TrEMBL record:
Pfam families: MFS_1. CDD domains: MFS_MdfA_MDR_like (cd17320). Belongs to the major facilitator superfamily. Bcr/CmlA family. The chain crosses the membrane at residues 12-33, 53-72, 84-103, 109-127, 139-158, 170-188, 218-236, 256-276, 288-307, 313-336, 348-369, 375-395. Residues 1-401 form the Major facilitator superfamily (MFS) profile domain. It is a multi-pass membrane protein. It is found in: Cell membrane. This is Multidrug effflux MFS transporter.
Length: 402
């Protein structure tokens, strides 16, 4: 962190509060998808449709939203789009709670996500505003450790709520959480001073995406985390039917088994804080993607043979997902380091592709799945895309000509 920014945050007493709030804002995405996972089988019965499309809709809004808010945040600062985005998230959550058809809830999920995307996108940009490459990777690992609380408690809370009420209350709870985050975000400092803001028109700002697509190293790191997140969302969208419908787990037990994976993510994210001080980000990225690929190959083997049943699937998935914190932190820090003058747009494009990759997962699951939750479909998606992520990590990097 720059000495000037450190002094300012300490003076106003918002240093730890800022990082804690940014971690919570990054967690909004996970919470918005994970908290209602135990309810997906019941929602499929109530709404009479492919419930995976609720995740697809969220990811569509999340991806488009980041592309919209990124240049705006470079032009007007981080706090204005953050406030507007959280307001949209609250309204979208209320709409989901009041939905009675699959079409209604998918549309409101798009609206909800259009606002939710400001949390992780602007958190990454604010970290890059204040920290250099290695420190940014260290801080991102710290934030991911803290944000891991959300996907741990999300399915547990959702499963417990279903004991006493309907799935509609889950989205009402998200609206309340959004309001609390809005109140907390008001105290955050503006990390992009006027002199560093993009003075060009918004139209010119949006043209930066064309430049970013042509920056080879930025895109290699971005595609690495993008392919990996196809794997992540294949599990997020596919595991409720696999664990609950196919293997017969209760929604409450599903929440506990899901939480085990997040413990692995949090642990590796915490360890990564120290690894980035000793090893290069590229070497950490190569190692973590390779481990996830080997676990993905084990997963597809277990799913095909049926050997070990539920536990062989769960253990394989654990090792695939535990690499999340390392891969996401190292890829993000390395990618944004290539575009320091376009941190907002770069973070937006990276986030749009990263989380938009889940659209691929959910559509593949909806197209090839038949509602039974056969683990084979989820497994081959995860195996293929861990291999693609590893390929990106091992591609040689070179200086962009632009």
């Amino acid at each position: 962190m720059t000495d000037k920014f450190m002094a300012r945050t300490k003076k106003v007493g918002v240093g730890n509060f800022m990082w804690g709030t940014l971690a919570a804002l990054m967690a909004i995405t996970s919470l918005s998808t994970d908290i209602y996972l135990p309810a997906m089988p019941q929602m499929m019965k109530d709404l009479q449709g492919d419930i995976e499309l609720t995740i697809t809709g969220f990811l569509v809004g999340f991806s488009i939203g980041q592309l919209f808010w990124g240049p705006i945040s470079d032009r007007y600062g981080r706090k204005i789009p953050m406030t507007i985005g959280l307001l949209l998230f609250i309204l979208g959550s209320i709409g989901c709670a009041l939905s009675s058809t699959i079409v209604e809830i998918v549309l409101f999920r798009v609206f909800q996500a259009f606002g939710a995307c400001v949390g992780p996108m602007l958190s990454r940009a604010m970290v890059r505003d204040t920290l250099e490459k290695t420190k940014a990777a260290e801080m991102l690992s710290t934030l991911m450790t803290l944000m891991a609380i959300a996907p741990i408690i999300g399915p547990l809370i959702g499963g417990q709520l279903l004991k006493f009420t309907t799935w509609h209350s889950i989205f009402s709870l998200l609206a309340l959480i959004g309001f609390l985050m809005l109140v907390a975000s008001i105290r955050l400092p503006e990390t992009l001073p006027n002199k560093k803001r993009n003075g060009t028109s918004l139209w010119e700002a949006f043209k930066k995406y064309k430049i970013l697509f042509r920056k080879r190293d930025f895109m290699v790191y971005t595609l690495c985390v993008t392919f990996y997140y196809v794997t992540v969302y294949a599990f997020v969208a596919g595991s409720p039917l696999v664990y609950i419908n196919f293997f017969g787990l209760s929604p409450e037990d599903y929440g506990w088994l899901f939480a085990v994976n997040i413990v692995g993510i949090a642990t590796l994210s915490f360890i990564n804080r120290y690894l980035v001080r000793r090893y290069t980000l590229d070497n950490l990225l190569k190692t973590s993607t390779s481990i996830s690929m080997l676990a993905g190959l084990l997963l597809i083997t277990m799913a095909y043979t049926g050997f070990g049943g539920l536990w062989s699937i769960a253990i394989s998935v654990f090792f695939v997902l535990s690499m999340n914190g390392v891969i996401a932190a190292c890829s993000t820090a390395s990618a944004l380091d290539k575009v320091p003058d376009m941190a907002g747009a770069g973070s937006a494009l990276l986030g749009a592709l990263q989380y938009g990759s889940g659209i691929v997962s959910t559509l593949l699951l909806a197209f090839f799945g038949n509602g039974t939750g056969n683990p084979w479909i989820m497994s081959w998606i995860m195996a293929i895309f861990t291999m693609l992520a590893t390929t990106m990590a091992f591609l040689p990097k070179r200086r962009s000509k632009i």
